[in-house]
Amino acid sequence: MENIVIEKLNASNIDELQNLFLELVDHHNSVSKHFNGKFPSKPLNEKIAEIKEKVINGVSIIDVIRLNNNIVAFSIYFVENNIGTLEYLIVSGKNRNKGYGRILMDNVMAYFTENNVKRIEIRIVYGNDIAKRFYEQYGFQTQFEILTLYR
Questions:
Q1: Do 1 and 23 contact (CB within 8 A), yes or no?
Q2: 38: which of 4, 94, 110, 148 lies 20 to 30 Å off by Cα?
Q3: Whole-angstrom distance, CA of residue 72 vs CA of residue 93
Q4: Is 148 inside any structural domain?
Q5: pLDDT tens digits for 18-36?
C-alpha cells in the first residue's frame, strides 16, 4: 500500500471535498436508474455548507485520506441520541480497491465502539450494490426501503 496520511478535516478545509462530492454525484446518477440526474436533491454548495456548519458545531467528524497532499477518500459521521450515522464514505474512482474505504470504515466503527453506540445507520443509493456488499461485510442488513416521489 502507498504511503498515506489519515487525518481529521476541520471546517476551514471542507472545500477540499468538492471534487470527490462531484464524483459521488456522477456515480450515484449512473448506478441508480431512479435518480436520472436528480442527485443531489439540493445544490452541492448548500450541502457542503451544511456539513461545514455541523463540523463547526462539533456534530460531524470528517476523516480524510491524503496521497501526495490530495484527498482521495473521506468519511463523514456523527452520533446523536446514541445512534451512529455514517453520512458519507467516498473513495475516488481511481483509488478504489486499495483498502482506503476499509481504513476509513474501521476508523468509523472504532469511534462508534468507543462511544458505546448500539445502533449504526447508513443510507446507500438504490442500485449501489458494491457499497451494499461492502457494508454487509461489517454486519449491516437492510432494515427499511425509502420510496421517493419527485414532483
A1: no
A2: 94
A3: 9
A4: no
A5: 888 788 777 666 666 665 6
Nearest 10 degrees: Cα torsion 23, 34, 135, 19: 10
Question: Can you tell me whether residue 128 is helix, strand or coil?
Answer: coil
Give how many domains the chain has, as a whole number.
1
At 103, which CATH number? Answer: 3.40.630.30
Query: Given the C-alpha cell 464514505, which residue does it identify?
Result: 89
Note down the domain range covering 47. 5-136
Q: How many residues does the chain have?
A: 151
The two beta strands, 83-91 and 70-80, are antiparallel
| DSSP state at residue 58 | T
Q: Is residue 147 part of a domain?
A: no
Amino acid making up residue 101: G
Cell of 70: 490530495
Read off the pTM.
0.86
Residue 92 backbone phi and psi in degrees, to 5: -60, 145
With 0-12 / 13-18 / 19 or more C-beta atoms within 10 angstroms meaning exposed / middle / buried, residue 29 is middle
